[in-house]
Amino acid sequence: MSRNLTADLAADLRTRIVDGVIQPGGKLPSENALIDEFGVSRTVVRSALTRLQAEGLVETERGRGSFALTPPPADARPAPGSRPVASLEDRVQLLEFRIGVESEAAALAARNRSERQLHALRKALEEFTAGAAHPAHAMKADFEFHRAVAAASGNPFYSDCLASLGPTMIAMPRTRLMTGGEHDVSEHFEQVVQEHESIYAAISEGDGPSSSAAMRSHLANSRRRLRTPATGHRTDS
């Protein structure tokens, strides 16, 4: 019975994360709040959170609580004039903004990158590729890849822009977050890896136009994946 309660609570919280009710970086309800809401024991709550941690959907920090995917830094402060990203349309508009900014950053990176910066870009790509089964790790590595492109541009304003957006700028389509064999996500993940590989290859070769085109294609594909509905309530990507 306890196992069923644990599974039910984990499924409810997973759905909130996948559907964006709890945003990436957002804090989950406290243990006491979950106990009151679901009428379960503290043991059940902790078991459900442990299950979500194992799936890579939740991270728990002592003294701070549990967070969906990537917890914000302890000293995080909203950037002046920053806008909340609280809906699907907000996320789509953020991707549209990123297309303009990051396509140019990629072109500059092809021209200005150092060997050290190229190494950082490759490392982030490898860590992203290794994170296929762990959404939180993949999200962090994805952000580090894009931040490394901005740093390689040689223009600090690009780096500052991405730093102000933070890891939650990474759009996570529903299929990237579902676990337990509910959806086959390997094909989608491999496509994203290939898009990152194309960006890296163009920057490595010093080809500015190709770097810009590869970044634009990747982010445009991300926008499409985020918006394309599939069967039922899924958002396929």
From TrEMBL:
It holds the Pfam family FCD. The keyword Transcription applies. Keywords: DNA-binding, Pyruvate, Transcription, Transcription regulation. Transmembrane segments: none annotated. InterPro entries: GntR_C, TF_FadR/GntR_C, Tscrpt_reg_HTH_GntR, WH-like_DNA-bd_sf, WH_DNA-bd_sf. Gene3D superfamilies: GntR ligand-binding domain-like, Winged helix-like DNA-binding domain superfamily/Winged helix DNA-binding domain. Residues 3-71 form the HTH gntR-type domain. Signal peptide: none annotated. Residues 63-85, 205-237 are annotated as: Disordered. This is GntR family transcriptional repressor for pyruvate dehydrogenase complex. It comes from Arthrobacter ginsengisoli.
